[in-house]
UniProtKB/TrEMBL annotation:
<feature type="transmembrane region" description="Helical">
    <location>
        <begin position="275"/>
        <end position="294"/>
    </location>
</feature>
<feature type="binding site">
    <location>
        <position position="40"/>
    </location>
    <ligand>
        <name>ATP</name>
    </ligand>
</feature>
<dbReference type="GO" id="GO:0005524">
    <property type="term" value="F:ATP binding"/>
</dbReference>
<keyword id="KW-0472">Membrane</keyword>
<keyword id="KW-0812">Transmembrane</keyword>
<dbReference type="InterPro" id="IPR008271">
    <property type="entry name" value="Ser/Thr_kinase_AS"/>
</dbReference>
<feature type="domain" description="Protein kinase">
    <location>
        <begin position="11"/>
        <end position="255"/>
    </location>
</feature>
<keyword id="KW-0067">ATP-binding</keyword>
<dbReference type="InterPro" id="IPR017441">
    <property type="entry name" value="Protein_kinase_ATP_BS"/>
</dbReference>
<dbReference type="InterPro" id="IPR000719">
    <property type="entry name" value="Prot_kinase_dom"/>
</dbReference>
<dbReference type="Pfam" id="PF00069">
    <property type="entry name" value="Pkinase"/>
</dbReference>
<keyword id="KW-0547">Nucleotide-binding</keyword>
<keyword id="KW-1133">Transmembrane helix</keyword>
<protein>
    <recommendedName>
        <fullName>non-specific serine/threonine protein kinase</fullName>
        <ecNumber>2.7.11.1</ecNumber>
    </recommendedName>
</protein>
<dbReference type="InterPro" id="IPR050660">
    <property type="entry name" value="NEK_Ser/Thr_kinase"/>
</dbReference>
<keyword id="KW-0418">Kinase</keyword>
<comment type="similarity">
    <text>Belongs to the protein kinase superfamily. NEK Ser/Thr protein kinase family. NIMA subfamily.</text>
</comment>
Length: 300
């Protein structure tokens, strides 16, 4: 933990703004520039399979308006310190605490923004970046209403010549099944976690509270559309082959949600017409049978 009032001779530590298993994030002011920064302190605790320099090394490669910029890396015998943009806003887990659940139209607009970030990360050269930790607490809504993705602590580069991940880690409930298996995580891993995040935002139900499973979302909120229910269900398929295969595929369905809803509405109308026809035929044949019995009795 940073105990100095003035860190590195220029950063005044104002307060702790986040804590995790191996890290603490501080809000700090550069007294020379009079600017605010976030300082992430990562403890050098021996951890098998975890490279503590993965996050700063990944952040150095990134250049996207929805991602934090890295300014400096400082190291001592106990910790690594990442100096990066301070993003002012509210994390979506805290937003959920205030609101209970988020209206569908707002969630869709956020999902489109997140997909654009994933498209950027998943198409980086020479190796795509797999984020692996999508969840409400890692998404910040800024005061301007923009979405920012933070905390690349367990992100990794996807490499075609690797069969599995070096470490199996993720946030329980949001992590895809393959994050704890014997396969390499890929872009579909982020699709799964985004699907669980959308589920949480739309229903107000965390995957870590009863019923501890991803149910059809209209069972929890009947006002949600069948289109968004289809999207969440496809994102969260256990088998990666059954999910969206890219963030581009997903964003296309999000943008064309009205078409998906129209398709489901047509199916619903057809289903109702079939039921009505079956009832009509059942009543008709019942009536004909009744008349037939009456006529037979008359002739006997």
């Amino acid at each position: 933990m940073i105990k100095k009032e003035l860190f590195d001779g220029r950063y005044e530590i104002l307060k702790v703004i986040g804590t995790g298993g191996m890290s603490t994030v501080y809000l700090a002011k550069n007294i020379k520039l009079d600017t605010l920064w976030a300082i992430k302190e990562i403890n050098k605790v021996p951890s098998v399979g975890i490279d503590l320099f993965v996050e700063p090394n990944i952040l150095k490669k990134l250049n996207h308006p929805a991602l934090p910029r890295i300014f400096d890396i400082i190291e001592d015998k106990n910790s690594i310190y990442i100096i990066e943009d301070y993003i002012e806003g509210i994390t979506l887990d805290k937003k959920l605490l205030r609101c209970g659940r988020i209206p569908e139209r707002i969630v869709i607009s956020w999902a489109i923004e997140i997909c654009k970030v994933l498209i950027y990360l998943h198409n980086l050269k020479p190796n795509p970046i797999i984020y692996r930790d999508m969840k409400p607490s890692n998404i910040i809504l800024t005061s301007e209403g923009k979405i920012k993705l933070v905390d690349f602590g367990i992100a990794r580069e996807y490499k075609t010549n690797v069969e599995n991940d070096t470490a199996y880690i993720g946030t329980r409930g949001y992590a895809a099944p393959e994050q704890y298996g014997s396969a390499q995580t890929d872009v579909r891993t982020d699709i799964y976690s985004l699907g669980v995040t959308l589920y949480h935002l739309l229903t107000g139900k965390s995957p870590n509270e009863p019923p501890f499973t991803i149910k059809p979302i209209t069972e929890l909120n009947e006002n949600l559309s069948k289109g968004i229910e289809y999207i969440v269900a496809k994102c969260t398929e256990i088998d990666p082959e059954q999910r969206y295969q890219s963030a581009q595929e997903l964003i296309e369905d999000l943008i064309n949600l009205d078409k998906i809803n129209l398709y489901y509405n047509k199916r619903l109308v057809i289903k109702k017409l079939k039921i009505a026809l079956m009832i009509f035929l059942l009543l008709f044949f019942t009536y004909v049978t009744y008349i037939g019995i009456i006529e037979i009795k008359r002739f006997l």
